[in-house]
Amino acid sequence: MTPSTAPPASGPARATRRAPSLVLVNTGDGKGKTTAAMGTALRALARRWAVCVVQFVKSGRWHSGEVTLLSSLGAQCHTLGDGFSWESTDLERSAEMARRAWDLARRAIGSGEFDLVLLDEVTYPINWGWIEERDVVATIAARPPHVNVILTGRDASGPLIDLADTVSEVRKVKHAFDAGIRAAKGIDF
Ligand code: ATP
Ligand code: MG
């Protein structure tokens, strides 16, 4: 293979500022939003940070391995979602569960008790109008200075992107699911 570019001769510009905390958004239609956020939670735990994880969509029945592991490492984890909307038989109940999850998340952020609060799949209840985007944005904007927040989910809205310091879009190049392959234990949950 012939190389297409030469290695860069100079490094990127130097960063000089330190932020008291950051807001991160992992969005896009590819695989890796939640796992990247959980990986960051692992880093945070390695630094002895207090970590809170709130899962908005997956139900308690959908035990994901990473949440068990993060809990055993000291993270406070809450799985309050009602599963995927297309599996729900009672959307009003799903909406109510999402509101309860947000209520808990809002208190976790505002309390200042945590160094990192992870709002997993929060974009869905926001985009479906189940929780107020304005409230989410205002709560995060007014958070205690040391509280870092990570939001995940597809189709992160403009106001969330504006609010965040770092936004990553995971783009699907290929996904096994499209070839009819089921979610795999150890890889997908
Ligand atoms: P992961 O939890 O693996 O990091 P994710 O958070 O980026 O994935 P979600 O949209 O939350 O992706 O999807 C939840 C589940 O659906 C995961 O098991 C994931 O592997 C799978 N998934 C992710 N992207 C796609 C896709 N483009 N098509 C089908 N399934 C997907
Ligand atoms: Mg996810």
Characteristic key phrases:
189 residues; alpha/beta; Rossmann fold; six-stranded parallel beta sheet; 6 helices; 6 strands; binds adenosine-5'-triphosphate; binds magnesium ion
Structure explained in plain terms:
The protein is of the alpha/beta class and 189 residues long. The protein has one domain: Rossmann fold. 33% of the residues lie in helices and 15% in strands. It is built from six helices and six strands. The protein has a six-stranded parallel beta sheet with strand order 3-2-4-5-1-6, sandwiched between helices. Strand 2, helix 2 and strand 3 form a beta-alpha-beta unit. The chain is globular and about 55 Å long. 32% of the residues are buried. The mean pLDDT is 92.
> What's the Cα radius of gyration?
18 Å
Instruction: Give the tally of structural domains.
Output: 1
Mean pLDDT: 92
Largest pleated sheet: 6 strands, parallel
Given the structure, what is the number of helices?
Answer: 6
The strand order across the widest sheet is: 3-2-4-5-1-6
User: Can you tell me the CATH superfamily?
Assistant: P-loop containing nucleotide triphosphate hydrolases
Strand content range: 5-15%
Order of helices and strands: EHEHEHEHHEHE
Shape: globular
Number of distinct beta strands: 6
CATH class membership: Alpha Beta
End-to-end separation: 37 Å
Derived from helix and strand composition plus strand pairing, the structural class reads alpha/beta
| CATH A-level architecture | 3-Layer(aba) Sandwich
